[in-house]
Amino acid sequence: MDLLGMSVKYLLRGIGFVVYFPIHLLLQLLIFLWTYVVVVPFSWLWRYILSPIYQFIWHYALQPIWQYIIYYPIRWIWQHVLLPFLQFVRDVILVPVASFLWLYLLFPVLYYVIYYPLYFLWKYVIYWFYKEVILPVLHYCKIVSKWIIRELTWLWLHTIWYPISQIWRIIFQPSLRWIHKEIIQPTIKWFRSIFS
Description:
Layout: H1 2-195
């Protein structure tokens, strides 16, 4: 019986790994792309361009309209009309009816019909499956996806990034430096001498 239980456990782990690993790997790759392709550039764009524009518009246009046309009148109506009425309804109608419904209808149904069966299902079926199958599958998926992402990063660096940086440093950077020194600077000096 113990051998049969171990066999079923390892079989379920293998099936779970095969089914879940591609999803886990895709999620890790999407998180990697989201972090380094979307979040970093857009955070710079938000911090240095969009946020100052938004703060200017909010401070000088939207905030006065919000405060004096919408917020202060609604606050006055809430404090002097709606809140006293709602407190009266709560104290006189809602609290007695809700306490009666809870004590004599809802609590017995929830406790004896829903809570006890779910508790036994969790304790004797789902917890074992979670502990013996899902946690090991998640652990191995994490290890394999980290290894794949590390290898893809190494491949990216050594096949694309380093060669492009070397080409830039050896070919384009000296050419651009020469163009700037021999063409652009003399042209600027010539224009200055004409207009000064």
